Batch of 3 targets.
Target 1
Amino acid sequence: MTHACEAVKTRHKETSLIFPVLALVVLFLWGSSQSLPVVIGINILALIGILSSAFSVVRHADVLAHRLGEPYGSLILSLSVVILEVSLISALMATGDAAPTLMRDTLYSIIMIV
């Protein structure tokens, strides 16, 4: 009888924002440090933040795809993948270094995430 009164949870907790915000705070406080453990810690926090954000985007796109149905759902999933690719490629291009291997690895990582 208690099962009939339980509410169905349709909202997800947005815990994927914790790591990017934490990485920004750590970068702001210790970004000018030349210490190797600090640099490694900042990079690990940034990696976890990027991966959690990417998986969150894919999860939200998948929920929208299920809600909207077949023609629009496929378009939303495709658009989310394209936006992820463009954002990572533009971040690589903003650094100014020409690294075709890094560009190729970025595209493969997007394919593996999705």
Note: Helices lie at 2-5, 18-30, 36-68, 70-94, 100-113.
Target 2
Amino acid sequence: PDDYACLREVVKRRFRSWKLEVGSSNQKVSTSNLQLPDLIIVDGGKGQLAAAKQAAQECNLAGLPVFALAKKEELLYADGRQEPLELPRNSPAFFFLLHLRDEAHRFAVSYHRQLRNKNSLRSLLDEIEGVGPVRRKVLLKYFSSLTVSRQVSAEELAALPGMNRAVAGKVISIIREMRNNE
């Protein structure tokens, strides 16, 4: 996928939803989402900076400061500057930005792993004899509220609507196999 296009899309979605919430006066909205950020920091270099800046401009937020934190050199690219900022390696600001980036990576990896597990489970359920559309829907609903990697017993699954012990046992086997392949 095009990294720059994905970044533009994420930034535009974030601010498009903000504009929709602020723009509709007849709708009750949570005030926690209404405040614009003071700045945007993206993971990457000059290309990611340009993509985020373009998306902000397309949302009529051209004055919002945009920064990009490049991985290898740990340089901070700023909108409107030719040369990157190089923070002292032992400064609190430097460590804060690294922590911010690492936390964003952890969140993204965790989210994508969760999506992959759910999609893997969906396709594995399709292969189990005795799991049709109704049972598949029940199982996916059950697992959407849990982490797929959590220990689940056949008794728990057999107690779900429309399930029985035999099919529950097959599902448990598939889940164990899926965990072992991770």
Note: Helices lie at 3-23, 46-58, 92-126, 133-144, 154-158, 165-180.
Target 3
Amino acid sequence: MNSDLQKQYENVASPIEMITSLKAMFREQARTERYQMVKSLVECKLPKDAPVSPHVIKMMGYIDNPGKLDCPISQELAIDIILRSLAVELRSVHHEL
């Protein structure tokens, strides 16, 4: 434990109280990080005339991250999110498959 965190918990009455407090602290950090990742994911759009492949790889990185924070995105939802990020002209390709 770093010294600031150690000082914060040196007078805690029980280990259970300390664990509960630490879980709450890190749960909030994970929630904030998850929110930022989801925000980046839904705001990500393929720029006009940009190649699709690097864009999809970038999107997959965003999609894989929430799973690491105990908030996985299903494959179907991932496909929908990626298709939504593409230009309108490219989205129609999906419906023709």
Note: The mean pLDDT is 80.
